[in-house]
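Possible regression after last week's pipeline update?

I re-ran a chain I had predicted before the update to compare outputs. Posting the input and the new output here so someone can diff against the archived version. Not blocking, just want to make sure nothing changed silently.
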Amino acid sequence: MKPLILGLTGSIGMGKSTVAAMFAGAGVPVFDADAEVHRLQAPGGAALPAIEAAFPGSTGPDGLDRAALGAAVFGDDAALARLEAILHPMVAAARNDFMASFADKPLVVLDIPLLFEKQGWSQVDRIAVVSAPAEVQRARVLARPGMTPDKFAAILARQLPDAEKRARADFVIPTGGTLDETRAAVARVIACVAGPPGE
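New output (post-update):
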């Protein structure tokens, strides 16, 4: 038996990180694609030499200079594609290692921010979308340091609309209420998908 792979996704500010932590807290192994990218770009990270070669001046002793790299790729699809060509194979290798480590588990979660946008849906068995009302999402995102309405709009423009994600999901986990309500929704998803072996 191999694990059932649940893809976890959601637009910016929907509470996906909180929900991923709830799955982990319930004993479900979670692979966080964003966290892996951060590791690759941290001081000594495996991706730094290739990023520096492609975007000179974007790395240093402290790892990735996010402001410099952001300035190099923001709004430039070709530059973003070059960056993704460096990072995606490294993230895929780490994900394969993760899957091998938890091959005996009934359920694993792949936390993939752009699951629909980057064809990640093809790598999972079921999809859970984390969702909150638009006004809650907006308030959360604009409270982040350095975030502006223009930046928020640009990010949203690259993401599939929330309504479409919900329509394509096997499960929708609401995060607009209390943490206990969200935790209960996570527990229901686990109960649905992590049944006894053979189910």
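Follow-up from reviewer: compared with the archived run. The first strand starts at residue 4 and ends at 9. Marking as no regression found.
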